[in-house]
Design brief:
Elements: H1 5-34, H2 41-66, H3 74-95, E1 99-101, E2 105-108, E3 112-115, H4 116-144
Antiparallel strand pairs: 1-2, 2-3
Helix pairs in contact: 1-2, 1-4, 2-3, 3-4
């Protein structure tokens, strides 16, 4: 029997984004109903829905392939992923007109201004969360599927 470790690694990687995104979409739709101004939900969710689950799956496949040559811990490997996703998401958001980059802040939909220090703190929190999710949840799913 062929074990297909890369297919199982891909499925383990897409597990978390597949569970999280319906919750995020529900929260965005509810916030659109109560927000005083309309929120373009479809423009917010293009990048995460189209790319993030695929990126998580391929990143886990890359970790399985990388284990033959290196002994990088899964949590650290997962914490590197936002370093790739954030610049790509920023470029896409800039191209779609979702954000405008200023000297001291980012303007979101020409309505909400977010200072760079808040983005930096959020990014640091995101790195920690990615580390924990990859170490414990993706690691658990990898073990259950027999690829860890």
């Amino acid at each position: 029997m062929n074990n297909h470790p890369y297919l199982r690694a891909y499925l383990a990687g897409v597990f978390i984004p597949t569970l999280i995104f319906p919750v995020l979409i529900t929260l965005l739709l509810v916030s659109e109903l109560v927000a005083p101004e309309p929120i373009p939900v479809e423009r917010i969710m293009i990048f995460p829905l189209a790319f993030a689950p695929v990126a998580w799956g391929l990143w886990n496949v890359f970790w399985v392939a990388l284990r033959k040559f290196s002994n990088v811990p899964l949590g650290l490997h997962g914490a590197i992923l936002p370093l790739l996703l954030m610049p790509m998401g920023t470029v896409l958001a800039k191209c779609l007109g979702i954000i405008t980059l200023g000297a001291h802040s980012v303007t979101w939909f020409q309505a909400v201004e977010i200072p760079y220090w808040q983005i930096g703190c959020s990014f640091a929190f995101g790195l920690v969360m990615y580390y924990l999710v990859w170490k414990y949840i993706i690691g658990f799913v990898n073990r259950v599927l027999g690829i860890a």
